[in-house]
Amino acid sequence: MSKQVIALAYDGRNAPSVTAKGDDALAEAILAIAREHEVPIYENAELVRLLARLELGDAIPEALYRSIAEVIAFAWYLKGKAPVGFGQRDDGDAPLLLSGPER
Hints:
The chain is an alpha+beta fold.
């Protein structure tokens, strides 16, 4: 079984985009960097499989907006953040790492 991860970035203005992806050893290295920088990690194997079809720099497809919005809301909640207009700070880009269980 191998590990697979997809890293996304969201700037609050444009659709989230794929910033890193990898399997096996590369996935573990990406996870280590994410943990080191306290990037929220959300495990969802099906979503990772769908996003793995994208290339680096690609924006997520419109069909996945709702699913990714829920993941971003989860990540923001963990970081104590909220969208602009909700009365909390806005630090710009919000990195996020999606991880799929070993397959």
